[in-house]
Each structure stands twice: as structure tokens, then as C-alpha cells.
Amino acid sequence: MTTVHRVLNFSAGPAVLPVSVLEQIQADLVALPGVGMSILEVSHRSKAFEAILAKAEADIRALANIPSNYKVLFLQGGASLQFSMVPMNLLGAGQTADYIDCGSWADKAVKEAKKLGTVNVAASTKGENYSRLPLQSELTLTPGASYVHMTSNNTIEGTEYSTLPDVGDVPLVSDNSSDIFSGPIDVAKHGLIYAGAQKNIGPAGVTLVIIREDLVARSAGNKALPTMLNYGVHVENSSLYNTPPAFGIYAVGLVIKWLLDLGGLPAIAAINQRKAGKLYAEIDRTGYYRGTAKKEDRSLMNVTFRLPSEALENTFVKESTAAGFDGLKGHRSVGGMRASIYNAFPEAGIDALVSFMQEFEKKNG
To answer: Which of 2, 91, 93, 276 lies 20 to 30 Å (CA to CA) from residue 325?
Structure first.
């Protein structure tokens, strides 16, 4: 196979995929082995695709140790559609949903839910530019709430939960889009987990939903819900009510197998901790670079930092791009720098960035 040049992709999403997965997709794209058709052509009603779907689900269940009373769905519309689907399916008339406002995407989820029912913002760090996560002691939870919504990792601001908030017996709903399967996860402590695939487990176009059966029951009998927005319908049809994102599901399945072959979630967690540790150590080394997230809340997936001036940040972006690094400019809403170092980002790329940062400081410090 011809060797091609690949830049170091620090993009926040769509993000880097394992090279071995890309090579397998390339090798099998024209015709899946034993099928004679591309995954882009194969019918979603065929035995071949049903096998791909079943294997992806089985491997996800094995990887995350998902209990049998949870359903695994492959949907479309990204995490942003889940901002609406969650309250449509789970927030009943006269009920209240609690939301932990800990970042820009959590804020978007709050705004969508408010269109559909009563929302209590249990805590917010918006006034601190989301530089930290709300403390457990700051949560004002509603007794008997329909659910509590959280965002496990804040892609824009670079914060991440290391322990789950205590919400008692109320179902915990979590947007895990940017740290899904980056380390061990206790699915049983959640009522529902959702994640757009394109940051950590696959290409854009497929959304993973893991939902407990009792929550499926809330939507299954709701005839007022649009069919395509009803979790019960998708469960009943095993994610095949309509044509699913077949290519995306196939690619997610390959990524999940890659994670299993690595040694599963404990193994990838150790790799991610080591990668992020190297980068944060450089950020903290002299003070020339300044991390924007509170240290105890720092994300292992999205490392955000600033330089002494915006002019230097512009120079840093320009020179890093010329050096073969892509995607280091921070989100337009906050500025600064952001290195997104998801599961598939190579550790050698971290070492290269640290070396670049050291040279940049020598020249410009």
C-alpha cells in the first residue's frame, strides 16, 4: 500500500480515526469480503448488513460492559438532535428536568429542552466562562425530577468529569459525545447515554444511544411523538425503522474492535492519561502557556490553553500549520488554542507538539 503523508490532526471533530481502521475501510470499500458490494451500496435489510449491525452492538456491549436491561441504538442527527429527543421522550407533562450547565453544548441542550417543557438549571458555571465544573454542593436538584442531564466532557472549554454527580434515584442522562469510550464507564449509573460518533468512535453521521428499558417505556406508548423521534420505535425496529447510517455503523464497528484489541477501556484510559499528561506538563512548565480549565477539571480529550497575547496565538497557529499540525486554533467563541487528542490520536503527535511548543517559546518567549 502506498504510504501517504498525514498531518497531525488536532481537530475537535470530525476527528482523527485509527490508521488501521482507515486502511481496512480502504481495502474493503469496493467490495466487502464475501459480499461483493461496497458498504456504501449494501442493503440495510440484507443479512450482510444485519451481521455488521449485530457485531457492532455486541462489541459495544462487551467493551463497555453494558447491562442486559439497556438498549443500544444507532441513530442520526448528531448529539444536537438528542438535545430535543431526550425531553420529547422523557419529560412528561407537569414534570421538571434538571440540567447541569457546565459548557457551551450543555447550554444548547438547556435551550432546546426549555422549548419542550419545564427545566431547572441545577447549577451553572457560565459566569466563570465554564472554566470549571459545578461542585456537587452547588447542585440544586428537583425532588422527583424526570431526569438530570449532564455533559461529560466540554469540547470547547476543555473540562471533563472524572466522577459522576450524585443525582440519587433520578435517571442520569449524559451527553458523552467527546469522551465516549475514552476510559471505563459505569453504564448502570446512567439512565441514558448519547454521543455523536465523529469525535471519538467513528465518522460523522451516526449517533450512539444507550438507554435503559424503563426509559424506553416512557416513549414507547406516546403516540403523539413523531415516529422518527421516538426511542421506542427505534428499539422495536433494532435501529432499522428506516435506512440507518450504514457506512457510519460499519466504521464505528471497526473502531470498537480496535479498542477491544488494544485491551479495552482500561488500556485506552492509560494511553489517554499519558498523552494528556505530557501536554499539560508542557503547558505548566514555565507559565508561558496558560491552561484555561481549572486543573482538577481538565479534560483528557480537549486541551485548551492560551499564549501571552493574541498576536502570538495567531503566529502559533500559522507556524504550527506550516509544521504539519492541523486544528490547533481554539473554538471561535473562546479563542486561544485547543489540542483535541481523542482515542486515535497518536502519542508521537503529542511528543511532536511538545517539541514545537518548546521551540516556539525559545523563539518568542
So the answer is: 2
